[in-house]
Amino acid sequence: MFSHVLICPKREVKRFLDLTAEETSDLWLTAQKVGRQLESYHKASSLTLAIQDGPQAGQTVPHVHIHVVPRKGGDFEKNDEIYDAMDEKEKELKEKLDLDKERKDRSAEEMSQEAEEYRKLFL
Amino acid sequence: MFSHVLICPKREVKRFLDLTAEETSDLWLTAQKVGRQLESYHKASSLTLAIQDGPQAGQTVPHVHIHVVPRKGGDFEKNDEIYDAMDEKEKELKEKLDLDKERKDRSAEEMSQEAEEYRKLFL
């Protein structure tokens, strides 16, 4: 699967419904820009964009975030498996924010390399 | 499952990436407004908001549309079943637009009643 990017507003807001009009526009214009770059970078042909807005929709971290995932034919055996991957990403995010929980990070080198490539891409 | 609403821009555009900044803002501010009303109307507590942007992401009708679905605890046995429901809705939309395909509409009365309730809600 391709790199999965989460986009969130700077202000810590729990629900998408609670964003101001300006924040909503900024958030989605950013998602559009990031999606365009990601799709081109990964030579993909589609995107999955989703907000799980509230715990009953699968949101595990109470700070609005958009999932942006570049898609290619045959990247998942069944299209809906993308949403299991989305849940995995939610869990990772939650564990990352949970300081009591032990987790194995990717190596500093791996993360630094990805961050560097994405920096060139988006900035 | 609750009523599932699709929101699309007036201009027929295939990809979310191809909307202008103004269309993107309008589309998501509308989704936010509709989501707020739907959630309250159905006494739900969360929302699923998603765009399947391009055929490889599960888009079946080449006109940008956002899926907005009010969510409640226990509405699906597994959270991800919502995405199967989303695919069903994509198929319905496609069949509705395919004039050669026979389909059984809901009764005029059923549709008129739902349209009337939603008109009061959103206008």
UniProtKB/TrEMBL annotation, chains A, B:
Reaction(s) this enzyme catalyzes, per UniProt: P(1),P(3)-bis(5'-adenosyl) triphosphate + H2O = AMP + ADP + 2 H(+)
Domain HIT: from-to ranges: 1-78
Superkingdom assignment: Eukaryota
EC numbers: 3.6.1.29
Any GO MF annotation of the entry: adenylylsulfatase activity
Binding site for substrate: 52, 58-61, 67
Basic and acidic residues composition-biased segments: 94-109
Protein name: Bis(5'-adenosyl)-triphosphatase
